[in-house]
Design brief:
By secondary structure, the chain is mostly helical. It is built from 17 helices and no strands.
Length: 437
């Protein structure tokens, strides 16, 4: 694993100045928080417009359906064209790209990457409604901002890469209003080790990002959940079972993403714009019949966390979203996988709770507990970053009362995924990216 050493420990050529990095990190975080907040506000407005236009198009009958399907297909195709012609490094979530830069050094035009991530993300996630996450664009945009500002202030390449990693954390913090998760993500996933200057920079960018983001987006957690009580030890073992299930589902989900990418690769003779348009047409057709099922999935996640769902319909919705995320990611347009994963995890946890109370009707827990814990377990199984997953979910719901069940589920999910031998998804995506270069 020596060749997989993360960030710049093996490449360090000059000492890093913690004071300078700390001060610069606040600026990087503030700029990343501003751009990320603008991106989120744009997505929020586009989500509302997309739903409104689909509702209005129903007045036109099948002509309206054709309008929606063709419109979504065109948006996806244009976004794929932008990636191919303007900034190929902006494809997908951007996190594998950031990880590669920390190992191999910078490539690509930073300003083009930001432009394509912003506009392409608005087109595909907000306009077209592909099941992709907002965190992919914001993470890569934050990383690019860190690298750019490091250059403007004449920092060494070593320090610019540190700011790149810290900026990525600011992007994640802004995407989910989760400053601690953003910092932990850098240390656990991107860097893979504790490093004092990197930690200082990462905490600084999170402070700067959230300070700006909350001025524009508000202070409330992204999701509202009922009051959750501290569980006793007797309520932990059901969550161990939940973790095992989430581990198995996470393996299938990761393989579905890689399988969809491989399928697209087999069709490489077909222009990427046409392939993206085909995916977009399928999303548009689904959106015509069920507008709330497409997009990033926040509405569906909120419904699962509050239990305001019809369980017979939830099983169908869960299966659709389970396929929709990998399908959308294969379109090679800007967009991440975190938000869709959280939706699948919450729905899967709620479905297991529904089954559990039929086998053990006296179980002293709320079904929403399984939804919250399911998000952490599923995230851990796919990404293999348990601390990030747990902290992210705690910040998303604004409650740490289910910390013990989440630890149990993450433990079980990570153990299952490791025993079966499924690599972390970003490691696999980085390999796929390297094979194409």
């Amino acid at each position: 694993m020596a060749d997989e050493q993360k960030i710049v420990h093996a490449k360090r050529a000059e000492p890093r100045n913690p004071l300078v990095l700390g001060l610069l990190s606040l600026l990087v975080g503030a700029v990343a928080g501003l751009v990320g907040s603008v991106f989120r506000l744009g997505l929020r407005q586009l989500d509302a417009w997309r739903t409104l236009w689909i509702e209005r198009a129903h007045v036109w009958g099948w002509g309206g359906a054709l309008f929606v399907i063709v419109g979504v297909a065109l948006l996806a195709a244009i976004a794929a064209w932008m990636v191919r012609t303007i900034a190929p490094e902006s494809t997908g979530s951007g996190i594998p790209y950031v990880e590669s830069q920390l190992r191999e050094g910078w490539i690509g035009n930073p300003f083009r990457i930001i432009w394509v991530k912003l506009v392409g993300g608005w087109m595909t996630i907000g306009g077209a409604g592909l099941a992709l996450g907002r965190e992919g664009p914001t993470v890569q945009i934050g990383a690019v901002i860190g690298y750019i500002l490091g250059g403007i202030f004449r920092r060494s390449e070593e320090e610019r890469l540190v700011l790149l990693a810290a900026g990525a954390g600011a992007g994640l913090a802004t995407a989910f209003n989760a400053p601690i998760a953003g910092a932990v993500f850098v240390l656990e996933e991107l860097v893979g080790a504790f490093d004092v200057p990197i930690s200082i920079a990462t905490l600084g960018t999170s402070v700067g990002a959230i300070g700006v983001a909350r001025l524009l987006l508000g202070h409330s957690p992204d999701f509202a959940v009922p009051m959750l009580k501290q569980p006793n030890l007797g309520r932990v073992w059901p969550h161990l079972v939940l973790g095992v299930v989430m581990g198995l589902l996470g393996i299938v989900y990761a393989r579905a993403i890689l399988g969809m990418i491989a399928l697209q690769k087999h069709c490489s003779k077909v222009p990427v714009e046409f392939r993206a348009a085909t995916v977009g047409a399928m999303i548009g057709l689904l959106g015509w019949f069920a507008p709330t099922l497409i997009g990033g999935g926040d509405i569906l996640t909120q419904q699962a966390l509050t239990g305001s769902v019809v369980y017979s319909a939830m099983a169908v919705i869960f299966l659709i979203r389970f396929v929709l995320g990998p399908l959308s990611y294969s379109a090679e347009t800007p967009g991440g996988i975190f938000a869709p994963m959280l939706t699948v995890g919450a729905q899967g946890g709620l479905l297991l709770a529904w089954l559990w109370v039929r086998v053990f009707p006296s179980g002293p827990f709320l079904p929403q507990e399984f939804a919250v814990v399911g998000m952490a377990g599923f995230f851990t199984a796919v990404v293999r970053a348990p601390v990030t997953g747990i902290v992210l979910v705690i910040e998303l719901v604004g409650s740490s009362s289910l910390l013990l069940p989440m630890l149990a589920a993450a433990f079980a999910a990570m153990t299952v995924a490791t025993i079966i031998g499924q690599p972390p998804i970003y490691e696999s995506l980085r390999v796929v990216r390297s094979s194409r270069n």
